[in-house]
């Protein structure tokens, strides 16, 4: 079986949510014996070392240039989509059993004359219309707010167009899957959880009182989450002996001056760290104080895999299937958030039991390989089951 995966960003290294999901799926498909070709229309060209690193999994990489200009702001197509119109002209050699679109951004590939629409599957990372409305709420910049609102409206229209061309959907969010299924029962849709490394979960030590947040520091909704914590929760936590708030993530070389207005006593910032291993290892718990967003916040899932219990707002855990007080602690008000942290600080056994319960939930419900292979078999009854270990 042969598949073309179309991405808006080169998926390696897997250093943020969408890449983690896409790269994990590529590895799963490779293990299942698929021949994989990759088409990428991103902002940055991958390095030679990154291209070399994907060769064991990907037979061929096709790159096209992402092009954008200020006038695209007024185009009827979302800017994130319009800037990737070169996908229409990518030289596609060979007939693919399936074409997997990694998100709405790569919609222009559907106008490539060599793509069979009956072979197309869409991976829904976010409901982009909802996601951009959430970004508009997160930002205080008037121009950015206008841009996000316009993109939201454009994505809402684009989603209706896509329904006429695509009838196969893989949802990362159980919440968005259930909503879509109710509205579009004829579509061949399924909840496909993000890939997790089964049997390779870490165990927390619960020694250092480090509260950890890891997320892309260039994203406005992650910044908003950090700012909310620094404003409302961090001042309450500073009196706790040994407490530190650890912030880590890729800034894409953007300024972190937005942090300067806060009291950063007991705050440690890791800008674009090469590895997160020691940050997770030395953490006590993970916080996800998201105020706005859509889809699944993979930072929550990754923290659990890395042995940290999670305290989150309702936004930060939606679509995961995790249950409050059984797998995760949910707190939307500052005092409640503070009390949840104190509860786990004061009861390491409770923290240990919480992360073990959440890890067991992932083992049971997040078998990406099983769901994906089952979905493909449902589309292709003669699909050969092959595992390359």
TrEMBL record:
Keyword Transferase: yes
Signal sequence coordinates: none
CDD domains noted in UniProt: GT4_PimA-like
GO MF assignments: transferase activity
Family matches, as Gene3D superfamilies: Glycogen Phosphorylase B
Entry keyword Transferase: yes
Pfam families referenced in this protein's UniProt entry, alphabetically: Glyco_trans_1_4 (PF13692)
Keywords of the record: Transferase
PANTHER family: GLYCOSYLTRANSFERASE (PTHR12526)
Identification of the protein by name: Glycosyltransferase involved in cell wall biosynthesis
